[in-house]
Write a structure and sequence with these properties.
The protein has 155 residues and is an alpha/beta fold. It has a single domain, classed as Alpha/beta knot (3-Layer(aba) Sandwich), CATH 3.40.1280. Helices cover 45% and strands 18% of the residues. The protein has five helices and five strands; from the N terminus they run βαβαβαβαβα. The chain has a five-stranded parallel beta sheet with strand order 2-1-4-3-5. The longest helix has 20 residues. The chain is globular and about 45 Å long.
Length: 155
């Protein structure tokens, strides 16, 4: 099962980009034998029209019948094992290529939030959208590790 991240903003060279690249490589390697991956990232430009303009660009990166998971401060807070189970269910149920959607500095437009099959939060704090990519790719790798029975995730 392919997975996609659709995100507002271009991740420039630097520590965040290096971490994302590392976790994507780890996920692809670990997930391959589990029927997960590859993971691709589609970036759209932050627009002066705000969240609605960004939502139009993000819509183009989202498939018509793929599960949509938004990353949003109002989303559900789940454990890493629960996140891994969600990925496993999507894979086992033959879901289309899930898309994880990360908004820009102002968040996600309501039109995208209402379309989401699920919405996840990394806690009550607000995180920089570029750092959310790092956290998401790490959690995807962790989920693949959990599904593989790897010792990376310790309870």
């Amino acid at each position: 099962m392919k997975l996609h991240i659709a995100a507002v903003g271009r991740l420039r060279a630097g520590p965040e980009a290096e971490l994302v690249r590392d976790y994507v490589e780890r996920f692809d390697k670990t997930g391959r034998s589990l029927g997960l991956g590859p993971l691709s990232i589609h970036e759209v430009e932050a627009k002066k029209g705000g969240m609605s303009a960004e939502a139009k660009l993000l819509e183009k990166a989202i498939g018509s019948n793929a599960p949509i998971c938004t990353l949003d401060e109002r989303g559900q807070k789940v454990s890493s094992p629960d996140f891994a189970q969600m990925l496993g269910r999507w894979r086992d149920n033959g879901a289309g290529a899930p898309v994880f959607v990360i908004g820009g500095a102002d968040g996600l437009d309501q039109s995208l939030r209402s379309r989401a099959d699920t919405s996840l939060s990394f806690g009550k704090m607000v995180w920089p959208h570029m750092l959310v990519r790092v956290m998401l790719t790490e959690q995807l790798y962790r989920a693949a590790s959990i599904l593989a029975g790897s010792p990376y995730h310790r309870n």
